[in-house]
Amino acid sequence: MTTIAFLGTGIMGRPMAANLARAGHEVRAWNRTRAKAEPLAAEGATVFGSAREAVDGAEIVVTMLADGPTVAEVIAGAGLAPGTLWLQTSTVGIEWAGRLAGAAERAGVAFVDCPVMGTRLPAERAELQVLAAGPAEVRERAAPVFDAIGVRTRWLGPEPGTATRLKLVMNGWVLALTNATAESLALAGALGVDPESFFDVMTGTTFDVGYARMKGPLMLSGDYPASFPAALAAKDARLVVEAAGDEVDLAGAKAALAHLEAVVEAGHGEEDMAVLYRAVAKGRAAG
Ligand code: NAP
Fold it and tell me: Which ranges constitute the DSSP H helices of the chain?
C-alpha cells in the first residue's frame, strides 16, 4: 500500500480520495476549503491544512483541481520532493499539460498526464475511465491508484499531453451532446411538443443517448445540482475550441461555450452544466 497525497477534494476529488483510502492506501488529503476535505477523515484519510504538509512523505501525489493555473500554483506551493510520482488528473488542456510536465521535470518528479472521464456518480462508484500518458517505468507504480478510482485505464504513450488530447476530444462530444439536448428540449417547448415524447420516440433506437437521459430531466426540472459545474464546463469548452484553432470548425462546441458563458455570467457557474438550457430556452426554462 502506498502513501498518497490528494490535492483538491471537490466534486471529483473527494470520492476519488475516499476510494483510495477504502482500497487501503494511506491518504493525506488537502483542499483549499478545508471543510470539503474533513468528511474524508471518516473514510480513513488524514486531512492537512496545507498542500505542503499533505505532500510531505507522500510517494505519490494526485492533483484534482479546477484548472492548469490552479494546479501550477498549488504544486509550486507544495514543493514536491524529487522521486515523487505526480498523477495529474485535473482537466487542464494541452498547453498546461506541457507546462506542468515541464515543472515536474525541473523538480525531478515523474509526471503522468491522466485526465479522467466520468462525473460525480462514476467517481463515487470508482467507475472512472482513466486516460494516461507518461513514462513506461512508472506505470506499475501508478496502476494501484488508477485501479482504485476507475474501471479502466488506457495508456496512450509516454508523451504528456497525449491523454489530454483524447480528453478534449471526449469533452467536445459531451459538450455538444449537452447543448444538443438543450436545443431539442427547448425547441419542443417552443413548438408546443410534450418533451416526454422526445425521450419516448428515441427509446430503443440508435439515436438514443445516455447523456440526454442524464441531463435532459435536469433541464426540464429547472433544478441543477452540480455533477459538473457550468463554470468548469465553460473552461473545458474554451480548451476544446482553443485546441481546434482554425484546423476544424467546431460549431457545436462553440455553441456550448456561448451558452455556458451566458449562464456563468448570469450567476449559475456553480450549478450543473445542464443549466446551459436556460440560455438556450431563454424565458421558457423552468426555475
Ligand atoms: P470542483 O468541485 O469545483 O473542484 C475544484 C477544486 O479546485 C476544488 O478542490 C477547489 O477548492 C479547487 N480550487 C479552485 N480554485 C482554487 C485555487 N485558486 N486554489 C486552490 N484550489 C482551488 O470541481 P470538480 O468537478 O471536482 O473538478 C475538478 C477537475 O476535474 C476540473 O479540472 C474538472 O474540469 C475536472 N473534471 C470534472 C468532472 C466532473 O464531471 N465534475 C469530470 C472529469 C473531470 P475549493 O473547494 O476550495 O473551491
Answer: 13-22, 34-37, 51-55, 68-78, 93-107, 120-124, 139-149, 162-191, 195-202, 210-221, 230-244, 251-263, 277-281
